[in-house]
Amino acid sequence: MQYYIQRIVRNSTELEAYKKDTVEANALQIEEQVNLAKVHARVEAIRIAPEEARVELLDQLFTEAQTIKNGLEIVNRNVIVGFTELIKNNTSLQEKVDFMKAELAKVNEEVAVVKAERLAREARKAKLAQKKEREPREPIKEEQYNNLLATIGFEMTFEAARMRITLALLFITGFRIGEVRKLLLRDIKSIFDSQRPCVALTTLKGKKYRTAHLSALGKRKIKPRKEDFRFILKHQKGDLDTHMFGNKKDHSRVTREYITKEINKMLKPLRTIYNGYYTSHSFRSGFIQYLWEETGDIELVRQELCHAKSDTTKDYIKDLSDRELSARISRVGLEEEEDEID
């Protein structure tokens, strides 16, 4: 940018120089006009001079006139060259000004992009800070899950059947919505395969494949969804290699944001009923809490969820209530006591 400013200043200086040359040329022309007037006066003097002196005076006058003529031609040529160069430099200067305007517009666009990115980053930070200030997210337990199914009802439509299976998958596997969205009907079919009673399905998580295993509760909860799956498979013309969340118009997958929005809409009544904060991620929290309460093995839960560190798993687990602690502790050593009685 500094380079182009320097060029404009330089061209402006050149323009002033050409203007100066033009003024000087005009001054010369005026001066020569005065000289021509003098020549006319001399011609008149020759006309009235004696005849013997006229020849010498005329030769002298013609010599001076030729000299003046040659000087005027030189001046005119210089003026023409000066104006030509001035026009060229004016055109070049305008082109450079236009170029600078275009470059300035690009700079403004880049600045606008940077400002937009900064505002978006600040908005994300504010949203994250607001999220941290919210009340803790409550886990979805069996009671809340049954309440959601009752809200959907038992109408056999594609949307209702798909939502019932989605809620079941979230509840019994702890999958994220993005992971459920990626599942093929072939993957979901494996849940109902009697030859694989423990292995639910496999989905891509990062660069690793995760296999979800069904608990006894999971098997009970997924069994009623078999009819829903058959209905969806029929709707998809029996193609097991399609997604459950295929778009009706072009068979592309429904976005994760849309699914999250629909589920969060269903969860709103739970906040009033159970006086807690529920989101779509509450299913994952509920699965982790249930698995830990049933096994007490944090490492087992970590491996099932494919967490890299056990600290991540611990963040999901809520402290037990006094009643739950009492019930859990009262069972400690119970099996050993029964063995002694036997």
What does this structure look like?
This protein is mainly α and 342 residues long. It is 72% helix and 4% strand. The chain has two domains: 131 residues; 179 residues, Orthogonal Bundle (hpI Integrase, Chain A), CATH 1.10.443. Strand 1 and strand 2 form a beta hairpin. Helix 1 packs antiparallel against helix 2. It is rod-shaped and about 160 Å long. The chain starts with a helix and ends with a helix.
Shape: rod-shaped
Helix percent band? over 70%
Query: Major sheet, described briefly?
Result: 2 strands, antiparallel
From N to C, what is the helix and strand string? HHHHHHEEHHHHHHHH
Predict the CATH topology of the largest domain. hpI Integrase, Chain A
How are the strands of the biggest sheet laid out side by side? Answer: 1-2
Question: What top-tier CATH class of the largest domain fits best?
Answer: Mainly Alpha
The computed structural class is mainly alpha
- For the terminal residues, how far apart are their CA atoms? 94 Å
What is the alpha-carbon Rg in Å?
Answer: 47 Å
CATH architecture of the largest domain: Orthogonal Bundle
Q: Residue-averaged pLDDT, rounded?
A: 75
Q: How many strand units? A: 2
Strand content: under 5%
Instruction: Write down the domain tally.
Output: 2
Number of helices: 14
Uncertain stretches of 5 or more adjacent residues: 1-9
CATH superfamily of the largest domain: Intergrase catalytic core
